[in-house]
Amino acid sequence: MAEKNLIGELDMYREAGIKPNFSDIAKRYGKDRHTVAAYWRAEGGRPRDGRADRAGSFDAHIEEVAAKAQLPGVTKKGIHEWLLHRYPGENLAGYNAFTQFMRKNGIAVGASGGPEPHPRFETPPGLQLQFDWKESVRMANRDGELFEFNVFAATLAHSRRHIFIRSGTRTTDDLVRCMYATIARLGGVPREWVTDNMSALVAIKGGRRLKVQRAYEFAKAAGFELKLCRPRSPQTKGKVESSNRFLSRLAAYQGDFDGWDDIDEIIARIEDASNSEPNETTGLPPSALFMEEKDALLPVGNLRALEEAMGDVVRVARVPATMLVSAHGEPMSVSRRCIGRPARIVCMPGGAMDCYVGGELVATHVAGGPAYDPAHYAEAMAGKRWFGDAAGDIEAAAAATLGLLDSIGGSL
Q1: What Gene3D superfamilies does this protein's entry cite (predicted)?
Q2: Distance (Å, rounded) from C-alpha 182 to C-alpha 164?
């Protein structure tokens, strides 16, 4: 994150035609001034580290790469990202070297095909967000178990900042929940939201198209306008269509993950990459341009009205010392640092829920999953005094934790 902020700040100086003070920036980011200067010379990317010429660093994985290349929908970029993720200690070369490696060894992925590109329309900062679903993604894990899900994809039209949220279904409740999460993560509201005639927004009754009022009431409470593009004219939301190019990287993980937590981590990695890589049109990473666009977003405004518009989808509660919040009558653990802070618990149909504290997603509970997140369990068992000053020594806190976890297990 610090690297993205550094690159974004340098890009803003570059756009303004100002040469920055490398020593001052280095002090704030905890880097050497020569390192900051190297980032400045890289013009929006990472400084070259000599790895681009080492195509041979992939030789040990040639069989894996050839197998991944046969997967439906996979891309070269997706395979490269998968290699960097799965083999972080091997100091593998960059993407240019990887394409050279594939060309040298005659490994090709399927042609991307697709329709002819449409003209691009630029929009001012803060005006428009385009969104859609990537529907019915099917992936098998290492044990052959099939996982099916959808991904809500939203893209700010000016900065190309992407947000990806996994959802089990595509109901109106799911859509409203994803809209709420998008606003929380952006820290503001784009003025118009553009999509197609999805069933969560439009119902067909007696041959007539009727708006689903629940979604439009939420839009009104949040302060944005919902706009539906004409049927068979996806170019109207062409910027969010490009998000499928990033989500196609999921294909490289076919047969190479464990469960829902792993899928969520992979989606988060893909989102991070989509926002840190320079955009082909703007030439800048979306995260850098978002620094400018964020100030142009509408303020969230009346959160209470927004939550009332969501009905029983959202509830607000202060995180207790037990680190457990509840929704659907079920407990869900959050991090120790959230104790005493107000949390917004977003309930999903079917029993799933998300928890936001200060606009940050701090916990996700999958329907039917354990109440205690493994990371929060480890934090509690490490001797953190999350019961407060009255907890006594570390052993007493750990014993109390075990008792709490036993009681939770017996009540589920």
Answers
A1: Ribonuclease H-like superfamily/Ribonuclease H (3.30.420.10)
A2: 9
Sign of torsion, CA 174 177 179 182?
negative
pLDDT in tens, 15-45: 777 788 888 888 888 888 888 888 887 766 6
Radius of gyration of the chain (CA): 23
pTM, 2 dp: 0.60
DSSP E strands in 215-263: the ranges are: 225-228
**Backbone phi and psi for residue 280, each to the nearest 5 degrees, phi listed first:** -65, -30
Cα–Cα distance, 403 to 412 (Å, whole number)? 15
Residues 6 or more apart whose CB falls under 8 angstroms from that of 19 comprise 13
pLDDT given at position 327: 73
Residue 151 has pLDDT above 90, yes or no: yes
10 Å CB burial of residue 282 (0-12, 13-18, 19+) is middle
Neighbours of 6 (CB within 10 A): 20
- Looking at residue 235, its pLDDT comes to 47
Q: Does the structural domain 128-296 have CATH classification 3.40.50.720? A: no
